[in-house]
Amino acid sequence: MDWIQLLSIKRFGLENYRSEKKQDRTEYQRDYDRLIFSSPFRRLQNKTQVFPLPGSIFVHNRLTHSLEVSSVGRSLGEIAGRELRKKYPNSPAHFEEIASIVSAACLAHDLGNPPFGHSGEQAISSFFSEGEGRKLQTEVEDEGGRWSDFTCFEGNANTLRLLMHQFYGRRRGGFALTYSTLASIVKYPFSSELSGGKNKFGFFASEENEYRTIARELGITCLNENPAKFVRYPLVYLVEAADDICYQIMDIEDAHKLHLVTTEKTIDLLLGFFEENQRPHYQKNLKRIHDVNEQIAYLRASVIGVLVDECARAFMENEEAILAGEEQKALIKNIPEKAKNAYETCSKFAIATIYRSKDVLDIELAGYRIIGFLLEKFIHAVQTPSHIYSQLLLGRIPDQYETDSSSTYGKIQSIIDYVSGMTDLYALDLYRKITGMGLPEI
C-alpha cells in the first residue's frame, strides 16, 4: 500500500460533486465537525460504557469515552504524521492530516454500538443464535441473506452501516465522510463468514460492495475475494490503540471512584507502567497532591502519556510491515515488555474484578431482557404488518428505517438499526410502555 493513495479526500456518495466554495477547513476536519454535531453522536451521552449511567458519582458514558479516545487518537496521529514526514520528506502525501483523520475516526468508532454497554452486542447476537430469532434462519438463508451478520452482530460493522447507508429521507452516502476516515474505522476488514463465530467483523453483507469500492480506491490489499477479506487500513492501528489506551485505563479510574477498587490497588496498577528507577519521581509528586481522586488522575494522565509514546513508536517501527499487509498485531501488543505486562495485568484485573461487579452485571442482565424483548416484538411486527397490533408497534418506528424491505434480511436489519440506535433510557422507557408497566401521563 502507498501513503499517497491511502490519504484520499474523496467523499463517499459525493464522488462526482465539486464545491465552488473555498473551505478554510480541511476535508478531514469537516469529517470531524460533521460527526460531532450529529444526532447519533449526541445520543452516546445516554449509552452505557461499562458502569451504570451516573447518579451522584460521574463515570464514563459512550460520549465521554469517544471524546477521550479522539483526543488520544489526535496525539497519536500528530506523532505519526511528523515521523512519516521525516521518513518521507519529499512525499506529496498529506501526512499532516493524519491527526485529523484519526481523531474523526475515533469520534465515530462507537456510534453503531447498541444500548446497555458491551453486553448490547451479545444480547442482539444471542437473540438470533439462542433466542426467538433462531426461527428466521432458514427464511433468511433461503433468500440468500447472510445469517452470520445477525448471530455475530458487531458494533463496528454497524458503525460503518450507520455512516454509509442512505436511510429513507437521508442523503446519498449517509454521512458522506471521506474514504480515508471510513476506512480508519474498520478494525476487522472481513465479512462475518470469516469471524469464526465471534463478534469481530467489519461490514454487513449490505455494505460489503461499498467497502470494496473504498478499498479499491485507497489501494487496500485484498486477501480474499469471497468471502471478502482485506488487510487493515494503516490508520486503523492508531484508532485501535487510542481505544485500547482509554478504555482500559479509564475503566480502572471509574472503578476507583465507585469504590470497587481501593486507592492502594489502583496506584499499584498504574505505577506498574513505570520502571523501578522512575517510580520515586511519581511517588514524590503524589505526596504533593492531597485529593485522592486527583492523585489517581495524575497517574492516569502519566500512564496515557507513556502509552501514546510507545504506541506511536510501535507504529513507526512496524510501518513498512503494515503497508505490506504483513503486520496484524495491535500496537498495544508491540510496546516494550514493562508497559505491555502492566497493561495485561490491568486487563486481567478488570476482567476478574471490575467487569464482574454487581452493578455491571445488573446492566447486562437488563440489557439482555430489554433488547431481546424489543427485537422479538418489532421483528414480528414487520413480518405481519397487516395485524392491528403490528401497525401500532410500527407506528413507533421513525420513517427513516426500511421496515417495508422486500427481504427478510432487510426487515430484520431495519429493526436492528432502530434498536441499536436507542439510548439506554429510551429503550427502557419503550420496554415499559409496550409491556404496560409505564404509561404516558394523562
Structural notes for this entry:
This protein is mainly α and 442 residues long. It has 21 helices and two strands. The protein has helices spanning 3-6, 27-36, 39-43, 62-87, 98-108, 119-129, 137-142, 148-151, 155-164, 179-183, 205-218, 236-257, 263-271, 279-287, 292-317, 319-323, 337-354, 358-383, 388-394, 408-420, 424-435, and strands at residues 222-224, 229-230. Strands 1-2 form a two-stranded antiparallel sheet. A hairpin with a 4-residue loop joins strand 1 and strand 2. Helix 4 packs antiparallel against helix 5 (98-108), helix 18 packs antiparallel against helix 20 (408-420) and helix 18 crosses helix 21 (424-435). The longest helix is centred in the first third of the chain and has 26 residues, at 62-87. The termini are far apart.
End-to-end Cα distance, whole Å, is 63 Å
Class inferred from helices and paired strands: mainly alpha
What is the CA-based Rg, rounded?
23 Å
- Helices, by number, come to 21
Strand order of the largest sheet: 1-2
Largest sheet: 2 strands, antiparallel
Order of helices and strands, N to C? HHHHHHHHHHHEEHHHHHHHHHH
